[in-house]
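Input/output pair, single chain:
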Amino acid sequence: MTFIGLDPGASGGIGVISPHGTYAEKMPDTEKDILNFLESITRAEVGESHIVIEIVHSMPRQGVASSFKFGMSYGALRMAAIACGAKVSHVAPQKWQKELQCLSRGDKNVTKRRAQELFPELKITHATADGILLAEYARRTHK
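Output:
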């Protein structure tokens, strides 16, 4: 089973936990690049893939244009995940952070530190921390 975590947004990332390895990467630049990346993972792995996407919404004082762009990014991730034929689920930040004992309250250093604790072999950045933690959440809660 392969677990893939997707953290939406321009500074988001992708985390992968599979029988062939664990890694985290910054989110690809375009929708096509995201789809190609997810397809390459889901095709290369043996067995099913489970993709978990963090639920997002607009934030207070966030401009209309940036809220729209954020929503478009989230929708593109959902469609790319569905197009890959993987099982797709969504999780609120509070839920996965509570499960992994890293309630951040918006402080990215908290999730970066927790990701580095759980995956000391990886180079964790602010962009990749949530993606790998989402993949770990999917792995831990998989039934």
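The two ends are 11 Å apart (CA to CA). The CA atoms of residues 40 and 84 lie 9 Å apart.
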